[in-house]
Amino acid sequence: MSGLLNILTESVNEVPRIEFPNLFDKSIIVNRVAFNLFGVDIYWYGVIIAVGVILAFIYAMHKCKQFGLIPDHVFDVAFVAIIFGFIGARAYYCIFIDTDINFFDLRHGGLAIYGGIIAAAIAAAITCVIHKVNLPAMFDVGGLGLLIGQCIGRWGNFVNQEAYGAPTAGSLPWGMTGTTIINDPVVVAKQAELDAAGNGLFALVHPCFLYESLWCLIGFIALHFYSKKLKTFDGEIFLLYITWYGLGRFWIEALRTDSLFIGPFKVSQIVAGGCVIVGLALFILGKIFKTKKRGYVMYKDSEACKEKNEAYYARQKMLEEKEPLEIINTELVPALDIVGKGFEKGTMFLPQLLMSAEAAKAGFAAVKEFMEAKGSDQQKKGTVVIATVKGDIHDIGKNIVKVLLENYGYDVIDLGKDVPPETVAEKVVEIHAPLLGLSALMTTTVVNMEETIRQVRKAAPWCKIVVGGAVLTKEYADMIGADYYGKDAMQTVYYAESLLNNGGAK
Description:
Rossmann fold, alpha/beta
């Protein structure tokens, strides 16, 4: 036990040593500082946790297809969950464990796993609802990722010589001690007891970080293979995760001496026990539900999942094989033209037009995102100002025009509804807009459209004006001084194309 003697004699010099005297002859020198970056010490605790998070994220991204999830959705949910998970872990620690610590003083440690899991789960659930992602399937992936993160992250406690268990009589094969541990009052008291007995034993502690790391590793391996063949309902893996982790944590917390108590009970054990009971109960109910409802289909096998995934991977394949502008010109724009012509002929109606416009909008957004990632940018065809005239609050038609124009590659400045003539004229002049679109639904507001045209003609004679609305006709449009009457949204798009994309006004 020469290593242990080194600890005892050199602890006054604060040499960071850790020893497993029944396994190794020498002590392990562990510096809490991993490296120095621009004069700032970066601690191993943070590095180890970061590695755990990164590996968990990589695994989740690799595993998501098996659960029917789209990588982009997993990325978004994981990003939000990680941020709020750290906030929750810190908040739980500061509220329940060390109330005197500064919340923002992260460099001295202090993260509570339960707070992190709870906050991450809530944030992930909200994100899934917002983005319409299957929550149980996402939680299944998350449970596997958490086991990876916890397995690795616990070694940060090893470096810091914390989260260890009660002292033993020195016979434990993997019992540990260290320069910080030997000064623990509980360990000191145990050592005094052993010294009084005169048996020459040293007070060693349970390496709880090791127990939890191995427990999570075993759980991850088991659930990894379980998820491939034995999973029968969505959310099952997550329920098994909280059951398994809760069971291990209940046992490990019984060994620790730094737990928070409520009366005679340890808070962590209460939470762990609750996880076991809830997780196991819901797992059993899920199995019963699956057995009785023979028509149950897991999300990865559902038609909704298949449609989403087919669309996503088809999009990814197209982006890889074709240039962005080629996709726009040969796929998106022709598709819009088909829908627009169908709308003109009466074979397609407003709901179909709106649905196709939204679908095309999503397609254009994906192309734009891809181009920005490559450092390129979509070529803009021109700028169009649109508005619903003063006194008129109906803007459905205007909004349709906006979506379609944007999908065709135009920058659209939407001034909204009930817009005064002066505001319209000022904006046209400000950006030197080549084209203005005005909408009116009510007969009583047509006079305001005429006044808007008059002011724009005076202030910006170069600007072409297209008008539309249920009460307008070509004859009326000509009478109030408009350049073009767009009887529907596609006609407005065609006019913009002829004016701005074929050598017209710029």
